Amino acid sequence: MLIVLFSAVNIAGYANVTERNKNEIDIANEDKTSLVRGPYLQKPTPTSMILRWRTNNKVNSIVKYGLSPTDLTQSTIDLFETTEHTVLLSDLKPYTKYYYSIGFGDSILQGNDQNYFLTPPVKDSQGKYSFWVIGDCGNNSINQIKVRDQFFRYRGSNLTNGMLLLGDNAYWSGSDDEYKTGFFSIYERDALKNIPLYPAPGNHDYAMNSERQADHKIAYYDIFDTPSNGEAGGVPSGTEAFYSFDYGNIHFLSLDSYGKEDNATRLYDTLGAQVEWVKRDLEANKSKWIVAFWHHAPYTMGHHNSDTETELALIRSNFIRILERYGVDLIICGHSHSYERSKLIKGHYGAESTFDPDVHNLSHSSGRYDGSPNSCTYLKDSLHKVDGTVYVVSGASGCVGGNPHVAYPHNAMEAFNDITNGGSLILEIEGSRLDAQWLNADGAIRDRFTIIKDAGRINNIKVSLGDSVSLSASWKGDYVWSHDSSKEQNVSFYPEEDQVVVVSDQFQCIADTFKIQVEATIELITDVHAPTFEEEVKVFPNPFNEEITVSYNGPDPTRIELFNLDGTVVKNIVIARSSTPGKKTFTLNAKASEIPTGIYILKMENEHRSKIVRLNYISE
Fold first, then answer.
1. Backbone phi and psi for residue 176, each to the nearest 5 degrees, phi listed first
2. Cα–Cα distance for residue pair 586/610, rounded to 1 Å
3. SS3 assignment, position 92
4. What is the Cα–Cα distance from 197 to 165, expressed in whole angstroms?
5. Which of 132, 503, 505, 554 lies at a 20 to 30 A Cα distance from 208?
6. Which of 515, 369, 528, 385 shows the shortest CA–CA distance to 454?
7. 8 A C-beta contact, residue 37 and residue 85
């Protein structure tokens, strides 16, 4: 019957329709409501998510969601009938995986175990976060499909926290139809239904048109919703052209390097609205990591030339010094259909020929951190925001080829890829460690680099003899400890004497040093008004080979225990209580107690104080 084509709220209006002739029924079947685009995930925050999709007919919008694909117990309904569906889910839990279905009336358009989303964590959470970065992707090419498929083979069953778009998301004029064929048709089956999108526009999204640069009347702004009001973190930008967001301990900036602002300024105009907002946003930011992304690359000799193209040269000479001053760790751009990647660099704003590696490279290793020669990780300090930036050009997720400049790659670039091969960047951040990998369209990892912050520390530690000490390496990775064979990040042990412990990584690139001072006899509990042991507990002889005598003044201890150095109680010692003041003694016979040779800790305590004495037993 025809009424199945309408939502529940419209059934009453068509209750009197009882029959149609055959031609009308055929037309109705052709007009059956179906999914044209999406679903895709927009504007994620720790407590909300927007779902968007398009239908061929105007119908209402229903999203059902829950913590299991078979138990979608919550729902949000918008009764307004439209083909462009935008539904906000709110009051969600941070960093929680939700499953969902979309539909209208009593009909479900899509909903299975691949329809899910993960809400972002609360700000400054120290999790492990993964982002897929694609640039110049939307040309519906064989390369675009290969890049996509290799990413999903790499990802496997792991979650991806976000998908960063570097611009030129649809070729050649960024029209809605080109987005359909060059973007949604490629990614909606596997990626868009469960990976939130964080877009940036490129020149092709603006149709390479000066009028569109100024009025922003392009499909990009109809398709994407961005957090322009600071709802995802950062300072509100007031425009969907550029914005920032927080993801755990990472602060991201998505910038517009092609569009014009109200006063006709662009990204390279340092007094323009966008740059003024960037300054305010970074001034307010306190996150451990800062990542900025946009379309036009300041350093490239690939498909584009950053020396001769005005907008690229002006971004380099005018703008990036601001990001370096605020400690931006990583800048990722597209535009040039190639892969190029710098070392940790700072202070180069001129032409390629003026780049001096001895001056501008703050680290001279490759940064690959894979055991190859001169490949140590890049190191940065959170307290010093002038430790340099890594620049990446990753503009070959769809478009490849072109005519690279004879100087390819740019002199500032440490790594590069065959310009005929496409790929995408995988960015992973866990705590104080950042890893990035260039995944080629053939499935090979062609480049990788690592930045680690706040590692290589010197720590001074005081510990009482008989107490354990807990040490922790300051980075995520592999570990080699100097005092034992542990491979864990955290170790605990009972030090016998002053010592220095060093933990290094497997490539000897990072080392933390722990200077441990052991205090042999120490009061653990202090109450100057309470009955106490006298200042001195005497043991003799020490070392001993059979018996040892312990003498003390004052009230009897409530507990006497003998420990070995791993903290195990060897013996509980019981002595007869005495109310007589003055010196008292007790004797420990090691042979009678079957105690093996070694160093021991004697702990005596009453309800107010405790004393520790180190004993050394040597059997004959």
1. -60, -40
2. 17
3. coil
4. 8
5. 132
6. 385
7. no
CATH of domain 538-617: 2.60.40.3080
Q: How far is CA 270 from the centre of its chain?
A: 29
Residue found by looking up tokens 């003899």 in the block: 465
Q: Is 63 helix (H, G, I), strand (E, B) or coil?
A: strand
- Give the count of alpha carbons within 13 A of 83, CB side only: 8
pTM above 0.70, yes or no: yes
For 573, how many CA atoms within 13 A lie in the half-sphere containing its CB?
23
The fourth-level CATH superfamily of domain 2-117 is: Immunoglobulins (2.60.40.10)
CB 304 within 8 A of CB 297: yes
Q: Between β-strands 480-481 and 499-504, what pairing exists: parallel, antiparallel or unpaired?
A: antiparallel
Q: How far apart are CA 487 and CA 271, in angstroms?
A: 52
Model confidence over 382-398: pLDDT tens digits?
A: 887 779 999 999 999 99
Give the pLDDT of residue 579. Answer: 57
Which tens digit of pLDDT belongs to each residue from 515-529? 998 876 544 333 434
CB atoms closer than 10 angstroms to residue 336: 33
Q: Is the pLDDT of residue 87 over 50?
A: yes
Q: Count Cβ neighbours within 10 Å for each residue of 81-110 and write b for 16 or more, e otherwise.
A: beeebebebeebeebeebbbbbbbbebebb
Ranges for all domains in the chain classified under CATH 3.60.21.10: 124-171+199-453
DSSP state, 71?
B
Closest CA to 336 of 136, 133, 132: 136
List the alpha helices (DSSP H) in 156-192: 176-179, 185-187
d(CA 290, CA 484): 37
User: CA-to-CA distance for 394 and 396, rounded, in angstroms?
Assistant: 6
The backbone torsions φ and ψ at residue 197, rounded to the nearest 5 degrees and listed phi first, read -100, 140
Helix (H, G, I), strand (E, B) or coil at 318: helix
Extract the tokens encoding 260: 């014009």
The whole-angstrom separation of Cα 440 and Cα 143 is: 10
Whole-angstrom distance, CA of residue 34 vs CA of residue 40: 16
Residue 1: Cβ within 10 Å count: 11
Give the DSSP H or E segment for 35. Answer: strand 35-45
| Residue range(s) occupied by CATH 2.60.40.10 in the chain | 2-117, 458-519
Q: Could you give the CA distance from residue 502 to residue 462 in angstroms, rounded to a whole number?
A: 16
Q: 559 — alpha (psi -120 to 50), left (phi > 0) or beta? A: beta
Long-range contacts of 508-512, Cβ-Cβ distance < 8 Å, separation of 24 or more: 509/369, 509/376, 509/377, 510/376, 510/377, 510/379, 510/452, 510/455, 510/456, 510/475, 510/477, 511/456, 512/455, 512/456, 512/457, 512/458, 512/459, 512/473, 512/474
Class of domain 124-171+199-453: alpha beta
26 residue type, one letter:
D
Rounded Cα distance between 282 and 389, Å, is 15
Query: Residue type at 61?
Result: S
Q: In sequence order, what DSSP letters do the residues of 201-242 get, joined into one string?
A: --TTTTTT-HHHHHH--SHHHHH----TTSTTSS---SSTTS
The SS3 assignment for 244 reads strand
pLDDT reported for residue 168: 98
> Does residue 9 sit in helix, strand or coil?
helix
Model confidence band, residue 284 (pLDDT cutoffs 50, 70, 90): very high
Please state which architecture CATH assigns to domain 458-519.
Sandwich (2.60)
Phi/psi for 42 (5° steps) reads: -130, 155
